[in-house]
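Example S7 (structure tokens).
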């Protein structure tokens, strides 16, 4: 009798274990190798502790590779990923193709109305949220206050390209391996072209005219490219054609760049003494202009989305709700300090006294985001939406070529 009971109890235990194992949902998440995403991976245990039925596998890729892999997977319905990290370019196009799941079940306390209006609009289609912004950004100038003071230079609040070019040349000391300016040179529509298209807007250029005729051979584009190349030759670091966001971040933090024009999200990293040798010597200014009414700043958000046809929508929604919530912001603040929380997504963050005190770049980040206008990106009228891209399916190929 005892043997029979023992076998029966053993069978019940085995069945329970099998049922528990089968109840586990494994999410595969594709993301970019930027600092905020790396930090999110380190905090994943908070999510799995709150959701014991879900496990998480990360696929972390360099920016160009991520875009290629994710685009190929969703277009072919490959099903490799349950959560995608995508940008403001992809969201409206993929939503129109019905490739994304609308995110209307992110939790009762998610507070979608707290999202910054421009960021929310950029990741929505037909009034529905199709991706949840993990962090939002524009671009601005980060510069070395000590080097400016030593050279007797004062950074204006709204600098012109003429000022930036002159200052970059004066601040370059190649024998000391200090370069006047670091700019993206790595090929890619989301790498060097993100910078160059935004720069071109400030020079009066546009991608297409009102009749969708390409404008790349016009004088405004020529002036943009000649200015960029000449500036990088005179005041840029060697090997600049290999430098994207992460490479320039490393150069700036090592004290090699007097100025760097790039994503506002970099501000928390260049002012973090654990990562930057010049953390206490960094100032910020708006992206430069040429007096034509447009600054060379973009608008972007790295966001989390669910591919249509996913069989793990409920678990994926739970993860996205966790990673883009106010609670996640508070978790990062508790672990890493308020200055290091993901920026640029929520109105409440820019009303938070603790954040404003810890983040000297906060107000300028918000001002840069607010001044970016995807509906009117250029000096002249254009038929497309988007600042550092045109929100059409063909642009990814155009930008890459």
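Recovered sequence:
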């Amino acid at each position: 009798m005892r043997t029979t009971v023992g076998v029966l109890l053993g069978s019940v235990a085995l069945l329970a274990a099998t049922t528990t194992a089968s109840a586990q949902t494994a999410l595969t998440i594709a993301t970019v190798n930027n600092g905020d995403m790396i930090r999110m991976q380190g905090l994943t245990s908070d999510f799995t502790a709150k959701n014991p039925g879900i496990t998480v596998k990360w696929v972390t890729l360099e920016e160009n590779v991520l875009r290629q892999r994710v685009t190929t997977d969703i277009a072919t319905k490959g099903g490799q990923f349950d959560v995608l990290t995508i940008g403001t370019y992809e969201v409206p196009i993929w939503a129109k193709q019905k490739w994304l799941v609308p995110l209307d079940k992110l939790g009762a306390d998610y507070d979608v109305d707290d999202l910054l209006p421009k960021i929310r609009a950029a990741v929505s289609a037909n009034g529905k949220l199709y991706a949840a912004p993990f962090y939002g950004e524009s671009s601005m100038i980060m510069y070395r206050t000590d080097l400016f003071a030593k050279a007797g230079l004062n950074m204006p609040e709204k600098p012109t390209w003429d000022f930036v070019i002159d200052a970059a040349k004066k601040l370059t000391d190649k024998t000391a391996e200090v370069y006047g300016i670091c700019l993206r040179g790595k090929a890619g529509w989301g790498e060097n072209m993100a910078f160059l298209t935004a720069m071109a807007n400030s020079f009066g250029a546009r991608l297409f005219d009102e009749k969708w005729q390409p404008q790349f051979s016009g004088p405004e584009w020529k002036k943009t490219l000649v200015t960029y190349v000449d500036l990088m030759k005179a005041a840029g670091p060697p090997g600049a054609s290999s430098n994207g966001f992460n490479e320039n971040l490393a150069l700036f933090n090592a004290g090699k760049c007097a100025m760097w024009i790039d994503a506002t999200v970099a501000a928390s990293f260049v002012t973090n003494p654990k990562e930057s040798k010049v953390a206490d010597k960094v100032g910020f200014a708006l992206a430069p202009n040429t007096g034509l009414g447009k600054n060379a700043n973009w608008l972007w958000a790295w966001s989390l989305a669910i591919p249509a046809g996913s069989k793990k929508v409920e678990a994926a929604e739970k993860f996205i709700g966790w990673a883009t919530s106010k609670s996640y912001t508070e978790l990062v603040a508790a672990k890493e300090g308020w200055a290091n929380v993901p920026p640029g997504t929520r109105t409440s963050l820019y009303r938070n006294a603790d954040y404003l005190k810890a983040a000297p770049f906060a107000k300028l980040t918000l001002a840069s985001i607010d001044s970016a206008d995807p509906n009117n990106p250029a000096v002249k009228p254009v038929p497309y939406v988007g600042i550092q891209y045109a929100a059409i399916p063909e642009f990814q190929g155009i930008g890459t070529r």
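Notes on this example. The chain has two domains: 2-137+300-357, 139-297+371-400.
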